[in-house]
Design a protein that fits this description.
The complex is a heterodimer. By secondary structure, chain A is mainly α. Chain A has helices at residues 5-13, 17-37, 43-56, 65-87, 108-125, 130-140, 146-153, 157-178. Classes of the chains: A mainly alpha, B mainly alpha.
Chain lengths: 182, 241
Amino acid sequence: MLDDFDEVLVRARVGSAEAFTSLYEDLVRPVAAYLRARGVREVEDVTSEVFLAVFTGIGRFVGEQAQFRSWVFTIAHRRVVDGWRKGSRTPLEVPYEADDDVRTSASAESDALDALGDKKVLELLTDLTEDQREVLVLRIVGDLTVEQVGDVVGKRPGAVKALQRRGLATLRRILLAEGVTL
Amino acid sequence: MSAFDDDQDMTVHDDELLLTGQPVQSEPELAAFVAALRITAVEPAPHPSLALAALLRDGLPPQSATPGPARALAARHDRPVLRNPLRTVAGLGLAAKILLGAGIAAATVTGAATIDGVPGTIQRPASAIVVGVVDLFRSGAAAPVKHAPARHAPLPDGSDDHRTGTGATGTATDPGATTAGSLAPVVVPSPAVPLPVPVDPGAVVPAVPDLHDLLQVPDGSEHAPVLPAVPPLVVPLVPGQ
């Protein structure tokens, strides 16, 4: 979260590189994580496309920081949906391959978490329906509220709550049945 | 509230705690899953593409801050597209609505009167209306046209000439007869006799025959004069005069 979001937004509207960088550094990691969790194959490319769209379209954005976050994830969500439409009508399920993961770890803690559960987390997500997966990833990775998620996916808050409840119930059942430890 | 409702409330409450990253002791597995998923959002960022890197380094010129999609959106709003005809009609003024309604009614009646497929019960009264309107226009065109009386303007000497202009009265136009604040020219009916024109004091002025001389015919009787036609006089109005 940016403490001086309003000022940064004003400068971003006039094309300030520093303002773009501030906004990018604030949101790039959750956006990339969202795209990864949604099964996007070219996470780097799509993440860059999302932020290019954000910065070239920032002149039409009106709102505060929470709305800006929702707006960025809305663009990311649409990129995911467009990617599906270009490829096939069904989402692309990318099996996790540790050798293909080019991400660099920033800390030993991150290394440990990767080793413990990154693969399993992504696998578990594929057991959910698309809507459940979308809602849970936006809530957890995007750190959005129920209302914000509703804005992103175009559903009412009640529908979002129902989807997250069913998604968590599915995960709960799988975790208990398999005795999964992350 | 039933025990089921209590359980539901507890579940919803726990779900919210889980999703917001707060510890839930009763569900360690699910809490661990959420924590593992949440931690992916703090991993190192992917490298930006060349285009994005250039934008982050150089920014955008101010005129580009209004993006292509936004410009397209604005242009779409500016375009007078009749997306919703009802809304468009509702936005018209009263006169425009009356004109539109009259136009639609006229087109409907004319269509009903002229299209062969229209049932006779509808076509006959429509034809009667159309014929009536056409006759009305024809009779209106044949009727003599009443002309408005010529504009009466005071004479230059200040006297008021109430004679109607037949061409012989020599009505003059007061150059000072203006409407305050208006610059629109006033067209005054052509006088039969040329009006006095401001003359340069140094200029040589040809002798102007007296009006009575002009009206006299050789046999001594006075007839309506036959004078050359003079084009309408256009007097520009000057404010403040």
